[in-house]
Design a protein that fits this description.
By secondary structure, the chain is mainly beta. It is built from 2 helices and 14 strands; from the N terminus they run ββββββββββαββαββ. The strands form 4 sheets. It has a 7-stranded antiparallel sheet with strand order 2-1-7-8-9-4-3, with no helix packed on it.
Length: about 200
């Protein structure tokens, strides 16, 4: 039998007691997200994590079995909620760093690369790999963060947008192949309890 193990580091703390961890990765989402649920009490003692953990703390989640850990998530605490008997950390990958306010401006006939270059004048430390051709007649930055801009682009132009290391990738959908899978209906499909015809 496998024994589950984990190493979850939030800020300067390594978590020893958790209720649940959920990680969601999808090209449909702008950023990878993780939810860590911690108990508010243990052994009839209030734990008080809300005083130790804050928004913006770095998060590292490694999960595995039998002391073999695999890094599953790196990111930041985006928000913290307390509910009933639990304490929930809502985490986001490095796109959290794009939640900085941008100066208001109106760009006329900008390409997607022009818009991203404007974003990177405020949000530094990232490079761009963009092979998606898209342009606007006008793009207005009005009380927006870099994350808002990327979200707007994803909704309107529908590209795949994701961060890998410190590189922001913007590509047309279905262009990139992230891996292949081989299926053999004699091997990969469990014949017990199925009624395949």
């Amino acid at each position: 039998m496998y024994n589950m193990c984990w190493e979850i580091i939030v800020g300067q703390y390594t978590l020893g007691l958790i209720e649940k961890v959920e990680i969601t990765r999808s090209v449909e989402l702008l950023s990878d997200i993780a939810t860590i649920v911690l108990p508010a009490t243990a052994y009839n003692t209030v734990l008080g994590e809300e005083k130790k953990i804050k928004r913006g703390d770095i998060v590292s989640i490694s999960l595995g079995y039998d002391d073999v850990l695999v890094k599953e998530f790196n990111g930041f605490v985006q928000s913290i909620t307390t509910d009933g008997g639990s304490f929930t950390l809502h985490c986001e990958d490095s796109l959290y760093q794009y939640r900085k306010a941008l100066p208001n401006i109106e760009l006329i006939n900008p390409t997607l690369k022009d818009i991203i270059n404007y974003v990177h004048k405020t949000i530094t430390g990232f490079t761009v790999d963009c092979d998606y051709e898209w342009s606007y007649e006008k793009f207005v930055f009005q009380n927006m963060t870099g994350y808002d801009v990327l979200s707007k682009i994803q909704k309107e132009a529908n590209p795949n947008i994701y961060l890998k290391g410190n590189v922001l990738h913007i590509h047309p959908k279905y262009i990139q192949i992230f891996g292949t899978a081989n299926y053999d209906f004699a091997i990969n499909i469990d014949s017990v309890g199925t009624d395949l015809k």
